[in-house]
Amino acid sequence: MTESYVIIGDGIAGSSAAETLREEAPDADITVITDEGEALYNRILIKEFAKGKMPEAPISIHDGSWYEERDIELELNTHVTTIDVDGHEIETHSGDVIEYDKLLVATGGTPTQLPVDNSDAEGVHHFWTFQDARGIEEHASEADTGLVVGAGLLGIDLAAICGAQDVDAKYLMRGDCWWRYALSEEGAEIIHDGLREKGVEPVFQSGVDHFTVDDDGAVTGAVDPNGVEYDGDFVGVAIGLNFNTEFLRGTGIELDDGIVVDEYMQTNVEDVYAAGDLTQFHDVLLGEQAQNGSWGSAKEQGQIAAKNMVADAEEAVFEWVSSYSITHFDFPFLSFGHPTLGDDYVEKKYSDTEWRRVVFKDGKVIGGVLIGDLAPQTKLKKLAREQRDLTGQKEVLLDEELDLDRLEAPEAEQ
Amino acid sequence: MAVSDTKSGALRLRRTESVPADATVKHVDQLRDQTYRQIARTTDGSVVELDAASTQLSAGDVVVFTDYLRVERA
């Protein structure tokens, strides 16, 4: 029977795995290793701290006593340098060797740096950890002008932080709208108006050619590809994540912009599992490999991985329709499933602050975006889970009051 | 996590500007769909029938939505 479990990463995926492992295996040795200097915190809420609106304490989820009470060994400030998958050992930067029967990799990602001059200048911030949030809060609270780069779900947090901290900011986007892979210009305009109300001006067909710095090496602004200069003593960059898999090279674990796992969170190497943002998992609803960076998805993946690790079998399946909400504005925003994938969509604008897109693959709902009116979310997620073929009926999903009884009953299964 | 009050009963969500350091704070994405849906329909001060145990919310908690919402006993 498996007796020792090692988890690399103490984010919500690793932590929920640890909790589940302890519940399922009361006598096992469980070790959690993290390169951060603090235990699990709420990554969704660190943006609220960076806005200057929330104290630090509520952001922390676990303290040392949580691990002690569960007899879980927590190793902070520890990097895993190598894994011997045949010998079932991991080695840390300090030379410690830890054996495992089952290993879970939940190391998440690190923000991608812009490949332009001076992208590492003082005052250029990336945003992923609580420590990043502390630095951002301190700087943004003193800054006069700001620039934000990265027209997606992470960049908008930096824009909102500028707004909340009264930084006069420009949001430089390469395309014609925010999150152009999921929204039309009509839908994105609601977001643009929301940003403007907060003192953040979207700039389209822009971006960064290089950053400018002063004699001390601190950022002073940027020049965009059109040659336009912008002031910015605070800069936030959010153009994506590089998944933390360097230490897995040479192990034979299959990597493809993340760690490839099946629906049981198993990698191709026996006794090695992965969970969280960095997985390329087999999405049983989509029918293909997918990735997801939401809190709920990561938490569920951690739990699924743990159950299968303890069972040493393919017992629990990861089947999940994710949600990601933006709460920066007066209107709500929710993205569910995979709104940037698929082969078809329907969309409609209902008012100046309400818009909806539902995305399909082979006639089935795989995701969508709701702005302003979130009432349809439960029904749309239900359709996604049921994988109902809605070919010929997609427009019904744009009814303001969504009524699933208007859909033809699904065909009885053979 | 704070121990939820297991008595069922109405909870009220009220807008708040400040978050006490000792509050349990949750983002709507951490809540169950049903609770999220009810919160999305809630206006300031209105009473929504939420069972504390099923929502895993307790009086004194703060929910982050388009506003910060403090959970109170109705």
Summarize the structure.
The complex is a heterodimer of chains A (414) and B (74). Chain A is built from eight helices and 26 strands. With 414 residues, chain A is of the alpha/beta class.
What does this structure look like?
The complex is a heterodimer of chains A (414) and B (74). Chain A has helices at residues 12-24, 46-50, 64-69, 130-140, 155-164, 185-197, 295-311, 377-386, and strands at residues 4-8, 29-33, 72-75, 80-84, 89-92, 97-99, 102-105, 109-111, 124-125, 145-149, 168-172, 200-203, 210-213, 219-223, 229-231, 234-237, 241-243, 259-260, 272-274, 279-283, 288-290, 323-326, 333-337, 344-351, 354-361, 364-371. Chain A is of the alpha/beta class and 414 residues long. In chain A, the strands form seven sheets. In chain A, strands 3-2-1-7-19 form a five-stranded parallel β-sheet. Chain A is globular, with a radius of gyration of 23 Å. With 74 residues, chain B is α+β, with helices and mostly antiparallel strands. Chain B has one domain (10-73). Chain B is built from two helices and five strands. Chain B has helices at 33-41, 52-55, and strands spanning 11-15, 25-27, 47-48, 62-64, 68-73. The N and C termini of chain B lie far apart (22 Å). Mean pLDDT of chain B is 81; it is low at 1-7. Classes of the chains: A alpha/beta (414), B alpha+beta (74). Chains A and B meet through strand 22 and helix 8 of A and helix 1 of B.
